[in-house]
Design goal:
Layout: H1 18-43, H2 45-55, H3 63-96, H4 100-126, H5 134-159, H6 161-168
Helix pairs in contact: 1-3, 1-5, 2-3, 3-4, 4-5
Length: about 170
C-alpha cells in the first residue's frame, strides 16, 4: 500500500538557508542607511548646494539660477535613491518568501549598488569636498563604506549555491 504524496503546496522544501535570511537583512540595512543618508542630505542641503556650485563650472549661468538647479538636483537624486532603496527592500522581502526572480533582481541591483558605491567612495577620496560641515563628510563616508559592504555581502549571500538550491526546490 503506497502513501499518496501531499499536494504541491504542502511539500516540505526544507528550511530557508541562513544565507538568504542574512542577504535580505543586509538589503534592509542598506535601505535604512539610504534613508539616514537622505535625512543627512536634507539637514546639510545649503552646504551641499554651495559645495556643488563651487565645484561646478557655472559658465554663463547666473548664480541664482545655478543654486536653484543644484538644490532641485540634490533633492531629486536623494529622493530617487530612497524610493529605489524602498523598492529593492520590497523585492528582498519577496526573495525571502521564495521568489527566485526577486532574488536574482536584488542580487543584480546589489552588484550595481556596490560598483557605483565604490566609484562614489573613490571620487570622494580623489576630490574631497571642502566646504561641508565637519561631521558630514566623515559620516557620509562611513555610511558609504557600510552600504558598499552590505551590498557586496547581500549579492554574495543571495548568489551562493545553498540559496540557489533552496530556490530551485520551490
Amino acid at each position: 500500500m503506497s502513501v499518496p504524496a501531499p499536494p504541491p503546496n504542502v511539500v516540505d522544501r526544507g528550511p530557508r538557508p541562513r544565507a538568504v535570511t542574512l542577504g535580505v537583512i543586509l538589503v534592509l540595512v542598506l535601505a535604512a542607511l539610504s534613508l539616514v543618508s537622505f535625512v543627512l542630505t536634507l539637514a546639510n542641503l545649503d552646504a551641499l548646494v554651495e559645495e556643488s556650485i563651487r565645484q561646478a563650472d557655472t559658465g554663463d549661468s547666473t548664480p541664482a539660477n545655478v543654486e536653484s538647479i543644484m538644490r532641485v538636483w540634490v533633492i531629486a537624486v536623494s529622493t530617487v535613491t530612497v524610493l529605489v532603496a524602498a523598492l529593492v527592500a520590497v523585492f528582498a522581502l519577496l526573495a525571502l518568501r521564495g521568489r527566485n526572480w526577486a532574488r536574482i533582481t536584488v542580487a543584480v541591483l546589489m552588484v550595481l549598488s556596490a560598483v557605483f558605491g565604490l566609484i562614489s567612495l573613490a571620487g570622494g577620496l580623489v576630490s574631497p569636498p571642502e566646504g561641508l560641515p565637519g561631521g558630514y563628510t566623515a559620516t557620509a563616508t562611513v555610511i558609504g563604506v557600510v552600504q558598499f559592504l552590505a551590498a557586496t555581502g547581500a549579492a554574495v549571500l543571495l548568489l551562493l549555491s545553498a540559496a540557489g538550491n533552496w530556490y530551485a526546490r520551490r
